[in-house]
Specification:
Helices cover 27% and strands 28% of the residues. With 386 residues, the chain is α+β, with helices and mostly antiparallel strands. The strands form 6 sheets. A 6-stranded mixed β-sheet has the order 1-2-6-3-7-20, with helices on both faces. A hairpin with a 3-residue loop joins strand 10 and strand 11.
Length: 386
């Protein structure tokens, strides 16, 4: 690999703002890089994801490496010491939005795949630069998987250069309480939906959540609440809506998540409605992606063949890789959680480096990740099964 070119490409990606649904410039830059590096096939699908393919000299399995091009925004009122789109290198770290989550991983995948010795490669390598992951985990990855039918998947989200063999899922739960409107000068004539929601929230705080020896505890976090009508001019609110972020463990279902709330005692007199949110977002291409916001958790055993080969590949690249698991949700919610494909996570940076002020990525980790991707690919497509 040309390490200097790898770093320059990562900087170029960080310099291009790419909020969810606005990834067009970044996608075009990825496509240009893939073509200049000699990928056998490069195209952009209807959702704006860029797919590059490298063919080995011999037939064999297909491994898909996925990284998303979209990032979260810059939070107002939180000053950055470094320009979030300047891609400055300070003390051997690259600063900027998306450096850790996850343009560094994407750049590493692209350059790792391009630098493979195809004569020793049995099978096909696909690198996908997918869209809209920050809002709909795995939804843009699905058509790529359905088109190319990979045998194995590597997700490039941050693992601190370890091999993640599982990950929490995510659900967005919407609660509604329905009251009865009345003039606020005579509140006794109505039913205040906000007061009902306050009781619901207090009850939800008592829900006993499961825990997992690898994933840790499930999480149920209140993220927003609003009454209707708003503003309430001299009227008792007849509806109140609250949103919860529910972090999922393996085996959890939408029905079980909702039942744990709706079955709480002491709420029988409240008109409470609960459902999994539906997300709908427009890609920069104009396509619309729509899905229930329930993205399941997943976990593979340590002894699974691909999991072991991935660890061996990372270690053969000189990394002190160990097994780990994601505490957040990734595109693996689809590849492993829905499609059931053997999937691991491997990427530079730590989970705590994502979505923060002065996001950064150590250049040494960027280079190590690229070499690790090569090691994983070669261990899977260049070796016979044990």
């Amino acid at each position: 690999m040309d390490i200097e070119q790898l770093i320059e490409f990562t900087q170029a990606l960080v310099q291009l703002p790419s909020l969810s649904g606005q990834e067009g410039e970044a996608a075009r830059r990825v496509e240009s890089e893939m073509r200049s590096l000699g990928f056998d096939q490069v195209y952009t699908d209807e959702n704006g994801s860029v797919i590059g393919i490298v063919e080995g000299a011999q037939p064999g399995k297909t491994i898909l490496l996925d990284a998303h091009t979209d990032t979260v925004g810059i939070s107002p009122g939180a000053p950055w010491a470094h320009d979030p789109f300047g891609a400055q290198v300070v003390d051997n770290a690259l600063y900027g939005r998306g450096a850790a989550d996850m343009k560094g991983a994407l750049a590493g995948m692209v350059h790792a795949a391009a630098a493979l010795d195809r004569r020793r490669l049995c099978g096909r390598v696909i690198v996908s630069a997918s869209t809209l992951e920050e809002v709909l985990e795995g939804v843009a990855l699905r058509p790529i998987v359905e088109k190319h039918h990979p045998d194995f998947v590597v997700i490039g989200e941050a693992t601190d250069l370890n091999i993640a063999r599982g990950g929490r899922g995510r659900a967005e739960v919407h609660l509604e309480t329905v009251g009865r409107p009345a003039h606020s000068s005579s509140p006794q004539l109505g039913r205040n939906a906000v007061l009902d929601m306050m009781r619901v929230i207090a009850a939800v705080e008592t829900v006993e959540l499961p825990t997992h020896p690898v994933m840790g505890p499930a999480i149920l976090a209140l993220t927003d609440i609003i009454s209707d009508p708003y503003p309430g001019h001299s009227v008792i609110p007849s509806m109140c809506k609250a949103t919860y972020d529910r972090r999922l463990l393996p085996g959890e279902t939408p029905e079980g998540v909702l039942a744990a709330i709706t079955g709480l005692p002491g709420l029988a007199d409240i008109d409470l409605r609960a459902h999994i949110a539906v997300g709908e977002y427009n890609a920069y291409t104009g396509a619309t992606l729509r899905a229930d916001k329930f993205f399941p958790a997943w976990l593979l055993p340590e002894e699974e063949w691909f999991v072991r080969r991935a660890l061996h590949g990372a270690q053969s690249a000189g990394l002190a890789a160990e097994f780990s698991a994601y505490r957040f949700c990734t595109n693996a919610a689809y590849s492993a959680g829905v499609a059931g494909l053997p999937t691991v996570g491997f990427g530079p940076a730590k989970e705590s480096d994502a979505h923060v002020v002065d996001e950064r990525l150590q250049l040494a980790d960027l280079i190590a990740a690229a070499r690790g991707y090569q090691g994983i690919i070669e261990a899977v497509l260049g070796a016979s099964e044990e």
